[in-house]
Amino acid sequence: MKNRNYKLLIEYDGSRYYGWQRQPGRNTIQGKLEAVLSVLCGREVEVIGAGRTDAGVHAKAMAASVLLETDLAPEGIRDYLNRYLPEDIAVLEVREAPPRFHARYNATGKTYCYTCHDGPVKSVFDRKYYTRLEEAPDLEKMRQAAGILLGEHDFQNFCANPRMKKSTVRRVDRIEIVREEGYLRFFFHGTGFLQNMVRILVGTLLEVGYGRMSLSQVQQALAPGEYQKVGPTAPAQGLCLIGVDYD
Q1: 25 Ramachandran zone, left/alpha/beta (phi>0; psi -120 to 50)
Q2: Are residues 120 and 220 located together in one domain of the fold?
Q3: Which of 100, 152, 162, 207 has the most CB atoms lying inside 10 A of its own CB?
Q4: Is 187 a residue whose pLDDT tops 90?
Q5: Does one domain contain both 146 and 67?
């Protein structure tokens, strides 16, 4: 048997996990995947995710790469994982990948969806996957603010890590806000996102929608250097990673 590189496509309900990244003594998505695959291979295995979702954040299509030494075909690896993973994590697909494929370094873009509910009656059965709003925000004002946030900017003020040493410049090329039957969905696509960036973007757009922030304040928040006011970090439960791009 020889080591082969595989690409995994994974979905999970992040409600009871401390995020993607492995942490000693805590339930994480990476930790659960590695535990099952390490038993399969009889040695420690490292699963590399396309990103690191925060505690409580969900994914419908997280990509990952892993080196495995096994006789199982890709479908057999998928079935083995799904047999032993908990019910809130599923591997949708396993494919053999080129030896140099790296799920994080080769990713060229990500799409996130943040879901709110502002209908007159709360929705019970998907309550773990949206943030409840007590009143409807102004959709047109939020769309105007979204237009300001599009493009390549220094998103330092939209990052939860004040000690970030790497560049905080990112490109966001799509922000779409859709209303449908009591739900308000925010779609974001970009080359990459900083820690809590999508949730802070949502919090900022909602502040504009409620008239607590102006469009000029949104513009100022993109100015480099001194800290500028942004909206609060929206709760984790409304956020879902829905796609990762590769060339």
Answers
A1: left
A2: yes
A3: 207
A4: yes
A5: no
